[in-house]
Write a structure and sequence with these properties.
This protein is an alpha+beta fold. It has helices at residues 8-18, 45-58, 61-64, 161-166, 188-193, 216-228, 327-333; strands at residues 41-43, 68-70, 87-93, 98-104, 108-114, 118-122, 125-128, 134-137, 143-147, 153-159, 172-174, 213-214, 238-241, 256-262, 272-273, 277-283, 286-290, 293-297, 302-305, 311-315, 319-325, 338-339.
Length: 344
């Protein structure tokens, strides 16, 4: 699209139609281009963790409902979003506490960072959570959290809030009681959907995964087996995506979720893709060069790789990285693309 030559009659036309809330397309100064306003940013665990514990002293889950520190991208002030489409927050729950039951239109994921003894209950089934576990909360399902252990538990919340907001479809409902009744045995969803098998009568209730928990020990074993089978990907190391066992697709219709292993000494190729992503470091130390910014990372750090920003990983030790992105929505709409992942 080229810039039109200045012309007083065209300027007059532009001024007149502005009163009808119209604007000439040819007056666009800049060509539309890939990428978003989001910036690369990192939240370091050693800086964030003390504030989480301080928040736990200052406000209860009954007062806050969800005791969460939201991770807001500095270029997206006021949105509460980590990328233009994704929300990220760090939630802490203390022993004996309950975060009351509600449901909402956005899909949510939990990635457990620290502590044991807490659970997420989804539609009557409690899922105990351990560090490294990925737990799903499909949209419009009743869910609550509790801690029956003896230590604080912290997890990363990831939600597709922006999609519900964009369509004007952000509904929310409170449950009449603090906790929902336990209606299914613990591990019921895993028994039904977690063994590459489906119940004969299974019919999908939503587009999200029916499997509520993806335990870290199984994910870690899968990464190790993958690493024994060949060389790492030139840009991503050994990377696996979590799947909806009923469809083979992504766990959510909007969000793709991944775990990757970067072996010690790995120096990845510079690459980029159109999905904006939120990463959480599970194990190890290394660095990510995102655009022109280098971030050295350590366990539990959270960082953002914005859409269409080049990213290059290096591993000082064996590293495991969890991430989620809006790739699922982009693929469904035919928008997603990448560059540099395979070419030299």
């Amino acid at each position: 699209m080229t810039t039109a030559v200045a012309n007083p009659n065209r300027a007059r036309l532009s001024n007149e139609i502005a009163q009808l809330n119209m604007k000439p397309l040819w007056e666009r100064v800049m060509r539309l281009k890939p990428g978003t306003a989001a910036l690369p940013v990192i939240w370091r665990w050693n800086e964030v963790q003390p504030y989480l514990m301080r928040a736990a002293e200052l406000i209860t889950t009954q007062e806050a409902e969800r005791r969460v520190l939201m991770l807001e991208n500095p270029a997206l002030k006021g949105t509460t979003f980590a990328t233009t489409t994704l929300y990220a927050g760090l939630q802490v729950i203390l022993p004996g506490e309950i975060a009351r039951t509600h449901r909402h239109a956005p899909n949510a994921l939990r990635f457990i960072i620290e502590g044991e003894g807490a659970y997420t209950a989804v539609e009557g089934e409690r899922v105990m959570m351990k560090p490294g576990d990925f737990v799903t909360t499909p949209n419009w399902t009743w869910h609550d959290h509790g801690n029956v252990g003896s230590e604080p538990v912290v997890w990363l919340d990831g939600l597709d809030l922006a999609f519900a907001n964009l369509f004007g479809a952000h509904f929310r409902e409170e449950y009449p009681k603090e906790s929902q009744p336990v209606a299914r045995a613990e591990g019921d969803a895993a028994a039904r959907y977690g063994a590459n098998l489906l119940p004969l009568e299974y019919r999908p209730r939503s587009q999200a995964s029916p499997l509520l928990s993806y335990p870290y020990d199984r994910t870690r074993q899968a990464l190790e087996r993958l690493a024994r089978g060949g060389d790492p990907h030139p840009a991503h190391g050994y990377k696996l995506r979590y799947v909806n066992p009923a469809t083979g697709g992504h766990p959510f219709p909007t969000m793709a979720v991944f775990m990757q292993w970067l072996p010690k000494g790995y120096a990845g190729r510079r690459a980029r893709s159109t999905d904006g992503a939120v990463y959480c470091v599970v194990e190890g130390r290394g660095s990510a060069v995102i655009g022109d910014t280098r971030f050295d990372f350590s366990p539990h750090d959270v960082f953002v790789v914005p859409s269409w920003e080049h990213c290059q990983f290096k591993a000082d030790t064996d590293c495991v990285l969890f991430s989620y992105s809006d790739r699922a929505a982009q693929e469904a709409l035919g928008f997603w693309r990448e560059e540099g992942a395979w070419t030299s």
